[in-house]
Amino acid sequence: MFNFFSKKSQYRENLFFTTDIHSHVVPGIDDGSPSVERSVELIKSMKSWGLEKLIVTPHVTQDTFENTPDTINPAYEALCDGLRAAGVDIDIDHSAEYRVDEMFVEQFDAGLVRRLHGDYLLVENSYIQEPYNLNQILFEISMKGYTPILAHPERYIYYYEKRNRYAELHSNGILFQVNLLSLAGYYGKEAKKVAEMLIEKNYVDFLGTDLHRRAHVEAIEKYLGTKDYQRHREILAGRILNDTLRTPSPK
User: Dihedral angle at the C-alpha atoms of 184, 187, 190, 196, nearest 10 degrees?
Assistant: First the structure.
């Protein structure tokens, strides 16, 4: 059977961290991997970059991916079974990427959200506009003992003309997770420019693959062979918090 993941890539380095906190490889429940088999192949690629721990994060989004523990847990277990059957040895856990919307508020109030690790919770904004009550929701998250991590802030174009908003959010204790794909230029020049600005401002707390599909694998592997990657690594190594999540999460 033809394996389209087997093509050799150009020379590249490994990642300078070993824990990924953002990917969409739980099969069949969001816009990421459609099957266990595809997920296993994606994870093999991730492991080849030096990743040793994955915290996988399917979307939880009102009206689009209305996932709950009842949909996430069986799909996650199927993924774990597939990895064992394929002999892929990697430390894996699951949480979710929670869109800040009414569904998130309901799940949060009902105690249905799953922490990323320790006190961390991965959240995202709409790509269209900032939630009108974002400050209030993030404050309530913090008051209940969670530390919110905002996924890919460099991709919210409504912040491009309001860059002081990044400073406001970060100074209020909101941590930032920037996508490797942004630094690779996958989403375009502006997202890369903003991601590098966040690095310059020392606002980048975590990096994530945000891996969905084979095209993302190819983009990241190409990036790992560039001088841009070497430059970003030199700045961020020892600064980002990814590998503090290697320890077991408190129950």
Answer: -30
Q: Confirm whether 204 is domain-assigned.
A: yes
Are 82 and 39 in contact by the 8 Å Cβ rule? The answer is yes
- 59 lies in a domain? yes
**Strand residues in the chain grouped as ranges (E):** 19-20, 53-56, 59-60, 91-94, 97-99, 120-124, 147-151, 175-179, 206-208
Domain count, the chain: 1
The pTM of the full predicted model, rounded to 2 decimals, is 0.94
Give the pairing type, strands 175-179 and 120-124.
Answer: unpaired
Task: Report the C-alpha gap between 241 and 133 in whole angstroms.
Answer: 28
Q: Answer yes or no: is 249 within a domain.
A: no
The per-residue pLDDT for range 46-91, each reduced to its tens digit, is 999 999 999 999 999 999 999 999 999 999 999 999 999 999 999 9
Q: By residue range, what is the domain housing residue 114?
A: 19-242
Written as one string, the DSSP assignment of 27-44 is TTSSSS--SHHHHHHHHH
Residue 41 lies in a domain: yes
Task: Give the CA-trace dihedral at 119, 209, 33, 97, to 10 degrees.
Answer: 30
Cα of 133 vs its chain's centroid, Å:
23
CATH number of the CATH domain containing 145: 3.20.20.140
Question: With left for phi above 0 and alpha for psi between -120 and 50, is residue 237 left, alpha or beta?
Answer: beta
